[in-house]
Amino acid sequence: MALYEQDELSEGHAFESLLNLPIIQTVTRDITKGRFANAYLEIQDHPQGIKQIWVNARSEIAWFAMDDGRTITNRHAPSRFWYLLYPLIVAVGFLAPWGTVRLVTWIVSGFTVSRQP
Questions:
Q1: Which of 25, 39, 43, 51 has the smallest number of CB atoms closer than 10 Å to its CB?
Q2: How far apart are CA 23 and CA 85, in angstroms?
Q3: Does any domain span residue 42?
């Protein structure tokens, strides 16, 4: 989580606090019953300023559109696995072509005749 900016962390907390509102919990129950998927849900005159809710294909709330134009999404820090995987991908991306060139050079040099004085 150290790589995330403070605004992104506070946005994640804002998303969680919006999910804990009673009206949103009611909407979440309706979503889990299978009534909504890939849909915008319009909310009118909400005291917290929610204008729209986007429900994704997995029937989960993906983001909230607010009256002031902000969009609050659910952002989580990646797991430690991804922090280890990305440098590994970079290393393999370098070593694979380098090793291939070395291997091809070694094979080709085996078929060439070297002249010794």
A1: 25
A2: 40
A3: yes
Inside any domain, residue 117: no
Out of 6-15, 39-48, 77-86, which region has the weakest mean confidence (pLDDT)?
A: 6-15
Distances (CA, A) of 66 to 21, 34, 48, 70, 81: 14, 24, 8, 5, 34
- CB-based contacts of 58-64 (< 8 A; 24+ apart in sequence): 59/31, 59/32, 59/34, 60/31, 61/19, 61/24, 61/27, 61/28, 61/31, 63/15, 64/15, 64/18
pTM of the model: 0.53
pLDDT in tens, 29-63: 877 777 667 887 888 887 888 888 888 877 788 88
Q: Measure CA 94 to chain center.
A: 25
